[in-house]
């Protein structure tokens, strides 16, 4: 999978760049927001391209399934391992071997750095959903290193 | 060939509208505006109707005396509307379909352009070119 490596490298480099250029600033939340916004724009464009030849979606769950299968495969070359929902607008997407974390060492050592490696993807999902007409809040959490969970909260209008 | 081509955003404001310059532009704006209701109706029928119509192409929206209006909705709820002259009977459904396809392809390229802000009006030359190719050539 030759196209995976450049994406990972670029992704790490973007994080590097954003954190370097904001050195000295006290607010660290701003960097994560920046990454999230980059992801948002990418997600918007990407979903436009991916859904070009698919049939119209029936409902929200249909959209989420598309994100878990086709969208995830396109970006990370694998599907989401587990999708859970409470059928009331909360979806939890679990990836047992998340590509953007796979090059960090397993264990607790780099746990504090995990959020910045997930921010872009959070934005990616949020952007994709927003372009499909679903407003959402996406958060992420890591418990054991290469696996992570994304929680998608749908905002009802 | 088309006499008017329009792209309408998710929130129902025009992203792009172009008609043949020889005729009353306002009339086309009106025609396209009117068609939005029909589009809405067709989308909301998805899932309820037996013949589950989940294709992006919506087909003929409605005919008026002089024109036929065709619609297409992307998954991101952006609408494309093509107005053709009724007198032009040679135009097949398939051709309309392929026109929409082309339009959608080009629109995707516009959306993926990092210099384009989603939600802004379309100012792409490439998109303009595609649309020009589909319009009636007025000598």
TrEMBL record, chain A:
Pfam hit, one: TRAPP
Matching SUPFAM superfamilies: Ligand-binding domain in the NO signalling and Golgi transport
InterPro entries attached here?
A: NO_sig/Golgi_transp_ligand-bd, TRAPP_component, TRAPPC6/Trs33
* Compartments where found: Endoplasmic reticulum; Golgi apparatus, cis-Golgi network
Recorded superkingdom: Eukaryota
- What is the role of this chain? Component of a transport protein particle (TRAPP) complex that may function in specific stages of inter-organelle traffic. Specifically involved in the early development of neural circuitry, likely by controlling the frequency and amplitude of intracellular calcium transients implicated in the regulation of neuron differentiation and survival.
GO annotations of cellular component type: cis-Golgi network; endoplasmic reticulum; trans-Golgi network; TRAPP complex
Q: Which UniProt keywords apply?
A: Endoplasmic reticulum, Golgi apparatus, Neurogenesis
Q: Which organism is it from?
A: Oreochromis aureus (Israeli tilapia)
Which Gene Ontology terms describe the biological processes this protein takes part in?
endoplasmic reticulum to Golgi vesicle-mediated transport; nervous system development
Q: Which CDD domains match?
A: TRAPPC6A_Trs33
What's the name of the protein? Answer: Trafficking protein particle complex subunit 6B
Provide the family line: Belongs to the TRAPP small subunits family. BET3 subfamily.
TrEMBL record, chain B:
Q: Which GO terms describe its biological process?
A: endoplasmic reticulum to Golgi vesicle-mediated transport
Task: List the InterPro entries.
Answer: Longin-like_dom_sf (IPR011012), Sedlin (IPR006722), TRAPPC2L (IPR044760)
Q: Does the keyword Transport apply?
A: yes
* Compartment annotation: Cytoplasm, Perinuclear region
Q: Does the keyword Transport apply?
A: yes
Q: Which GO terms describe its cellular component?
A: perinuclear region of cytoplasm
The organism sits in which domain of life? Eukaryota
Ordered alphabetically, the record's keywords are: ER-Golgi transport, Transport
Q: Which family is this sequence assigned to?
A: Belongs to the TRAPP small subunits family. Sedlin subfamily.
The name of this protein is: Trafficking protein particle complex subunit 2-like protein
The protein's organism comes out as Oreochromis niloticus
Lineage start: Eukaryota, Metazoa, Chordata, Craniata, Vertebrata
């Amino acid at each position: 999978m030759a196209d995976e490596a450049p994406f990972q490298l670029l992704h790490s480099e973007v994080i590097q760049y954003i954190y370097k250029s904001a050195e000295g600033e006290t607010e660290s939340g701003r960097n994560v927001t920046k990454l999230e916004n980059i992801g948002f724009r990418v997600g918007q464009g990407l979903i436009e391209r991916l859904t070009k030849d698919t049939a119209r979606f029936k409902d929200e769950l249909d959209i989420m399934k598309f994100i878990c299968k086709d969208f995830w495969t396109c970006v990370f070359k694998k599907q989401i391992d587990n999708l859970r929902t409470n059928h009331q607008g909360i979806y939890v997407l679990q990836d047992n071997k998340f590509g953007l974390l796979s090059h960090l060492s397993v264990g607790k050592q780099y746990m504090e750095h995990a959020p910045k490696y997930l921010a872009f993807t959070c934005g990616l999902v949020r952007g994709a959903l927003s372009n499909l007409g679903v407003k959402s809040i996406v958060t992420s959490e890591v418990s054991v290193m290469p696996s992570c969970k994304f929680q998608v909260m749908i905002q009802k209008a | 060939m088309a006499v008017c081509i329009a792209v309408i955003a998710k929130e129902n404001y025009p992203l792009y509208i172009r008609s043949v310059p020889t005729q009353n532009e306002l009339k086309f704006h009106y025609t396209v505006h009117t068609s939005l209701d029909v589009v809405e109706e067709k989308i909301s029928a998805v899932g309820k109707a037996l013949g589950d119509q989940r294709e992006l192409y919506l087909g003929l929206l409605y005919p008026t005396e002089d024109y036929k209006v065709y619609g297409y909705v992307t998954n991101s709820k952006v609408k494309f509307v093509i107005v053709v002259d009724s007198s032009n009977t040679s135009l097949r459904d398939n051709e309309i379909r392929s026109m929409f396809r082309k339009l959608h392809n080009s629109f995707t390229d516009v959306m993926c352009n990092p210099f384009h802000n989603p939600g802004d009006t379309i100012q792409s030359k490439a998109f303009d070119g595609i649309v020009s190719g589909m319009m009636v050539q007025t000598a």
